[in-house]
Design goal:
Layout lengths: L1 E7 L13 E7 L5 E5 H7 L6 H4 L14 E9 L2
Antiparallel strand pairs: 1-4, 2-3, 2-4
The structure holds zinc ion.
């Protein structure tokens, strides 16, 4: 899967801004683990108007199970 970064952390970015080709990449600041959250998963977990900036603390690291410390950005999946 080829991806490229299309958006960096922005306060105003909302769940509804995600297209199906977008994934939210979340890097854990505690252990360095990188997780990918698909647009479909985001929509199933949060309301469309919720800001990513305000839900980032709810995202739990799948490796160290900690929350509250992450760096995130949006990548676009390249279909090629
Ligand atoms: Zn972690």
């Amino acid at each position: 899967m080829n991806t490229r970064i299309v958006l960096t952390a922005r306060f105003g970015l909302r769940v509804e801004d995600f297209m199906d080709c977008h994934v939210l990449t979340v890097e854990c600041l505690h252990c360095g683990h990188k997780g990918h959250v698909s647009a479909a998963t985001l929509r199933s977990m949060f309301k469309p108007y919720e800001r990513i900036k305000l839900i980032e603390h709810k995202l739990r690291c799948s490796q160290c199970r900690r929350t509250g410390g992450s760096h995130w950005y949006v990548e676009e999946i390249n279909a090629e």
